[in-house]
DNA sequence: TGTAAAATCACCCGAAAGTATGACTCGAAA
DNA sequence: TTTCGAGTCATACTTTCGGGTGATTTTACA
């Protein structure tokens, strides 16, 4: 396991780690409070109150972290295209004729959406290298040299919508 | 105070009332649990655990109620009329709206044909750098990050055939 | 159940694309 | 005359693509 992998792991699981550490700390504080107040058992109400407060806070914090990771107002401008109504179906015979696999077609569709290889890999849960292999094969089969031409050609052949 | 006023009051302060009632109920349960378990003081941990759980839940619920209405997504839909016929004419209003110059459109068309920047430069008798400048401006104006997305978008907007 | 095709991933390398910034020319408009 | 947009070009840099090669694992099917 390299340091790259470790930092990747940290990045990906930062939140979970934070929660874990926070919970551990809380339990520690709990224990301390317990030992502190248990001897004076008429202070049990204060103790319980503190616990209640503490955990209400924890709940709020948790919910906040979990439900509002981005409190930004998104303005999505969506263009509605008239006269582009018909549904698309893949030209299956053409796909078979060119020997393009399902996975390759899938990659091709994402390429057509303008995604980078990296982004495609993340979308399909495969590595960058795999995406590159797929796209290279696609280019070969479509007899083109780059993704833009591939999209152009695939459109004309009815492989993508 | 009429019944109308009362129902108005209820509508306006429904949330606050709910909170109040809930809190009262909680305190009641608390009290009950206290009496229940205090005699068996080795069950204090269970008691405290229950309290903790309860109030964590309360916190989450509170936070949820308080923060969810703040998420706001505005979707601006805009109709774009694309020529449905076979012959293509540039959607001039759209070009002007986006502030895309004629030269830029020319470059965009060649990009759509799948030419490399180098090839576009040779076709238009300008340097590679000039083509890059143009295409960068195009990307900005179309709000995209690469040529594939640019072609995709330009096609939909009726800027290219 | 064995085999071929498909899918996955890695590493290297050079080319192409894209970003950022600045500068120069030219013609039209203020 | 000044100003401004469009077009041109450059330098420097980072990122992404695409080609080549080889390998392992999964899946499909005969």
Automatic annotation (TrEMBL), chains A, B:
<keyword id="KW-0238">DNA-binding</keyword>
<dbReference type="InterPro" id="IPR016032">
    <property type="entry name" value="Sig_transdc_resp-reg_C-effctor"/>
</dbReference>
<dbReference type="Pfam" id="PF00196">
    <property type="entry name" value="GerE"/>
</dbReference>
<dbReference type="GO" id="GO:0003677">
    <property type="term" value="F:DNA binding"/>
</dbReference>
<keyword id="KW-0804">Transcription</keyword>
<dbReference type="InterPro" id="IPR000792">
    <property type="entry name" value="Tscrpt_reg_LuxR_C"/>
</dbReference>
<keyword id="KW-0805">Transcription regulation</keyword>
<dbReference type="GO" id="GO:0006355">
    <property type="term" value="P:regulation of DNA-templated transcription"/>
</dbReference>
<feature type="transmembrane region" description="Helical">
    <location>
        <begin position="46"/>
        <end position="64"/>
    </location>
</feature>
<protein>
    <submittedName>
        <fullName>LuxR family transcriptional regulator</fullName>
    </submittedName>
</protein>
<keyword id="KW-0812">Transmembrane</keyword>
<feature type="domain" description="HTH luxR-type">
    <location>
        <begin position="93"/>
        <end position="158"/>
    </location>
</feature>
<keyword id="KW-1133">Transmembrane helix</keyword>
<keyword id="KW-0472">Membrane</keyword>
<feature type="transmembrane region" description="Helical">
    <location>
        <begin position="17"/>
        <end position="34"/>
    </location>
</feature>
<dbReference type="InterPro" id="IPR036388">
    <property type="entry name" value="WH-like_DNA-bd_sf"/>
</dbReference>
